[in-house]
Amino acid sequence: MIFCHLLRKDENELLPARSGCTIEDHVIAGNVEEFRKDFISRIWLTYREEFPQIEGSALTTDCGWGCTLRTGQMLLAQGLILHFLGRAWTWPDALNIENSDSESWTSNTVKKFTASFEASLSGERELKTPTISLKEKMERYSDDREMQNEIYHRKIISWFGDSPLALFGLHQLIEYGKKSGKKAGDWYGPAVVAHILRKAVEEARHPDLKGITIYVAQDCTVYSSDVIDKQCTSMASDNTNDKAVIILVPVRLGGERTNADYLDFVKGILSLEYCVGIIGGKPKQSYYFAGFQDDSLIYMDPHYCQSFVDVSIKDFPLETFHCPSPKKMSFRKMDPSCTIGFYCRNVQDFKRASEEITKMLKISSKEKYPLFTFVNGHSRDYDFTSTTTNEEDLFSEDEKKRIKRFSTEEFVLL
Question: Does the keyword Disulfide bond feature in the UniProt annotation (predicted)?
Fold first, then answer.
């Protein structure tokens, strides 16, 4: 998960270091291209405009309010990449994508709104089309495995399309958010998004997704037996394999401001092979944190308003779903509210992960108690209300109380 082989030029730019540094299981000796290829291969989900109208509203864009939903989508997308393609996978066209300039994407959003408005008046519209067709790309792949990877790459992106039918698209996430009192145009905090993502995965009716589930920690506690129960509950009677799980842990890294003592904790978390990132940000803006460099966090920024892409088209362009350059910010600017994500392929993987994460928590904790914990048993063993829900009520009363508490403590509207 860790990205750390870069040197600082300024707050938003990254440069190659002279010495090498580890990225997951392979060592890079100042190889900027390898870093860029790994980073660009991650799925980038940003504000979009002119997508199908969100039910119950007149909105056709999430610009200005949907950034935490987008960062949540990015974390889930990374988990799905690990699940279907593996950590070693990179997008073959990653280094062919056009790099962005150093100008702030937030200011570009304003410019894009202006350009869009002017284009609508003149009847002109800029259309982005792929430079190489899907057929031509497929012909370049050397074996069936590479072709299969490209099919899954596109399939994963399509699940996050901005249409009512996309399994993890904005429209569906908003529908699940309604169960917690949220609606389109509202602000969504990291803890609320964690529960929405869990519901979206649980309710997804796709054969490829039967082997993965999501668990959300309760009050900064991961109950191991509850996780394993979710992994061993199969949706198909003929499937005896345990499921992969994405564990989401909503936490606070301080009071009104992030406590600097948590820097080593965050760096330790991002260094773990099980970590799929952090839904966080700074006050008024949500980011998807994917790594760190020294005392700065490397992130993907959703605050860039791009045009709607119809992912139902067979050869839809991929370029706008991959971030051309990383950004970073000082840890001191991080908002204390965040949600940490981990991916475990099976029960044994979860057991190993819980042991490794627990060791890291003990080492990095300067307080008497760690920021979150793994405990044996079920939540019901500790007199907590079960979070089992029925079809009529996607969020239990206990969940609603926790979500309401978290949502009042998190970000303010951009």
Answer: no
Q: Regarding beta strands 327-330 and 296-300, do their DSSP bridges make them parallel or antiparallel, or are they unpaired?
A: antiparallel
Report, as an integer, the average pLDDT of 207-236. Answer: 90
Catalytic, 5? Answer no
Contact 307, 50 (CB under 8 A): yes
| pLDDT at residue 407, rounded to an integer | 47
Asked if 411 contacts 339 with a C-beta cutoff of 8 angstroms, the reply is no
Could you tell me if 48 and 307 are in contact, meaning their C-beta atoms sit under 8 angstroms apart? yes
The per-type count for the chain, helices as H runs and strands as E runs, is 11, 15
Where do runs of H (alpha helix) occur along 51-143? 67-84, 105-122, 134-140
Let me know: does 304 contact 105? Beta carbons within 8 Å.
Answer: yes
pTM of the model: 0.80
303 is catalytic: yes
Point out the catalytic residue in the list 4, 62, 63, 67.
67
The secondary structure of residue 382, as a DSSP letter, is G
Catalytic residue among 242, 303, 322, 323: 303
Closest Cα to residue 71, out of 310, 414, 391? 414
C-alpha–C-alpha distance, residues 68 and 281, integer Å: 9
Catalytic residue among 171, 301, 322, 338: 301
pLDDT band at 154 (very low <50, low <70, confident <90, very high): very high
**CA torsion, ordered 182, 185, 189, 193, to nearest 10 deg:** 60
Paired strand residues for 61? 49
316 contacts 309 by C-beta, under 8 angstroms: yes
Q: Let me know if 4 is a catalytic residue.
A: no
pLDDT at residue number 400:
55
390 to each of 212, 280, 349, 387, 395, how far by Cα in Å?
Answer: 20, 30, 29, 10, 8
Residue bearing tokens 């920690």: 217
- Please report, for residues 41, 71, 299, 330, the alpha-carbon distance to residue 7 in angstroms, rounded to integers and kept in the order given: 21, 25, 15, 13
Residue 283 corresponds to which amino acid?
P
